[in-house]
Design a protein that fits this description.
The protein is of the alpha+beta class and 119 residues long. The chain is built from five helices and two strands, in the order αββαααα. It has a two-stranded antiparallel sheet with strand order 1-2. The chain starts with a helix and ends in a 12-residue tail after the last helix.
C-alpha cells in the first residue's frame, strides 16, 4: 500500500515538473496487442503541437505518406524526457504513429464532431 502512495506521489511530482517546463502537457496511454495473449501498455507525455508543426504534417502527408508524416508530427510534440523511448517503440510498432498523430490533431481541433445545419 505504501508503494502505491509513493508511486502516485512520484507521478504527481513528475507531472508538475513537466508542466513547469512545457506548460500544458498531455499524457497519452495506449495498449498495443502483439498477439492474442500479449499486450503492451505504453505511456508518453506530449506538449501541445504547434501550428507550424501541424502545417508541416499536412504538407508532408501527401508527399511522403501518412506513417512517416505522423511519426514526424508526434516526435515534434513529445516531451524531451520521453523522446528516445518513443523512437524505439515507434520502430517496434510503426502503426502507433498514426494513432498518436490522430490524437494530437484532436488537440488542435481536427474532429469529426462537427454539426452543420441549414437555417
Amino acid at each position: 500500500m505504501e508503494d502505491l502512495k509513493n508511486t502516485a506521489a512520484a507521478m504527481a511530482d513528475s507531472a508538475e515538473v513537466l508542466r513547469t517546463k512545457y506548460g500544458k502537457v498531455y499524457s497519452l496511454g495506449m495498449t498495443v496487442f502483439e498477439d492474442d495473449e500479449t499486450e503492451v501498455e505504453l505511456n508518453y507525455h506530449f506538449k501541445r503541437p504547434s501550428v507550424a508543426s501541424y502545417d508541416r504534417y499536412v504538407k508532408t502527408l501527401s508527399q511522403i505518406g501518412a506513417s512517416k508524416a505522423s511519426k514526424r508530427f508526434m516526435l515534434d510534440a513529445v516531451v524531451e524526457e520521453d523522446e528516445e523511448r518513443l523512437k524505439v517503440d515507434a520502430e517496434l510498432y510503426p502503426g502507433m504513429a498514426i494513432a498518436i498523430g490522430s490524437k494530437l490533431t484532436d488537440i488542435l481541433g481536427l474532429t469529426n464532431a462537427v454539426n452543420l445545419k441549414k437555417l
